[in-house]
Structure formats: C-alpha cells, structure tokens
Amino acid sequence: MDCIFCKIVEGSIPSSKVYENDSVVAFHDIQPAAPVHILIIPKKHIATMNDVAPEDHGLIGDIFAAARHIAQELGIAEDGYRLVNNVNSHGGQVVYHLHVHLLGGKKLGPLPA
Ligand code: 5GP
Ligand code: ZN
After folding, report:
1. pTM of the model
2. Count of domains in the chain?
3. Of ligand 1's atoms, which has the minimum distance to the CA of residue 96?
4. Ligand nearest to the backbone CA of 87
5. Taking the chain (113 residues) in consecutive chunks of 10 residues, what is each chunk's mean pLDDT?
6. Atom of ligand 1 at shortest range from CA of 37
7. What pLDDT, on a 0 to 100 scale, did the predictor assign at position 113?
8. Assigned domain for 112 exists
9. Whose CB has fewer CB within 10 Å in the chain, the N or C terminal residue?
10. Domain annotation covers residue 110
C-alpha cells in the first residue's frame, strides 16, 4: 500500500517520534503550523474518520489518550492545546491515513471557517 503514514509506522520512512504504544504512533509534523505540532495516528491503516468502523472505536480513544499524555509530557496541558482531524477535500485532508493534529505552544487563533 502506498501510504506515507503506514511507511512511518513500519519505519521505512524516518520520522521524529514522540510516543508509541501497541496501537498508535505520534511524531512531529514535517511542516509545523505551531510551536508544537504533532500528528497522532493509529498503526492500523484507516483512510479517514468516515472509514472508522465500530470495532475501531477503541483506537479513537487510544488516539485521544495519547494526545492527553503527550500534552502532559510536553508541559502544554495546562495552558492548553488543540486537536484537529481533517476529513476529505472540504476538511483539507491531504494524507489519507487517519490522523489527529496536536497543536499548541502558543495561544492559537480562531478556527478558520
Ligand atoms: P492533513 O492536511 O492531511 O490533515 O495533514 C497532513 C499533515 O501531514 C500535514 O500537516 C503535513 O505537513 C504532514 N506530513 C505530510 N507528509 C509528512 C511526512 O512525510 N512526515 C511528517 N512528519 N509529516 C508529514
Ligand atoms: Zn496508511
């Protein structure tokens, strides 16, 4: 499968990993949009949030638990941060392997419309 994030999971493409467990991997975004910009992905290939099946619901919880853990580790939990999931064309999704952006490290602006 020609998926860049699956290759990051396999390790055949390098990434700057900050967290990993049995189900998820988190790594720095290659083009950070904020002082902290981390991508959290399931190891399982799921293209978009639209493709999440009931048996994957635990994985979604794992992604959010990882986000909470990473924010604590980086010391940004109290000041706050933002979790973003882009879906398909109108959502601005570019990489079709489910991922949640963890953004923080400064006071973020309002969400774009
Ligand atoms: P999307 O628009 O699909 O929600 O976001 C995809 C994100 O993946 C973008 O922020 C982009 O900078 C990041 N990205 C794309 N290719 C790579 C890569 O090869 N390595 C890393 N670390 N991030 C990537
Ligand atoms: Zn994939």
Report:
1. 0.98
2. 1
3. 3
4. 1
5. 95 98 98 98 98 98 98 98 98 98 98 88
6. 10
7. 82
8. no
9. C
10. no
Distance 30 CA to ligand 1 centre (A): 6
**CA–centroid distance, residue 93 to ligand 1 (Å):** 9
ipTM over 0.90: yes
CB 33 within 8 A of CB 81: no
113 inside domain: no
Q: Which of 94, 111, 108, 112 is nearest to 36 (CA)?
A: 108
The range of the structural domain enclosing residue 79 comes to 4-104
Cα–Cα distance, 85 to 93 (Å, whole number): 8
Query: The tokens of 74 are what?
Result: 């980086």
The number of angstroms, rounded, from the C-alpha of 62 to the middle of its chain's C-alpha atoms is 11
How many whole angstroms from 55 Cα to the centroid of ligand 2? 17
Q: According to the model, what pLDDT value does residue 68 have? A: 98
Number of neighbouring beta carbons within 10 Å of residue 80: 10
101 is catalytic: no
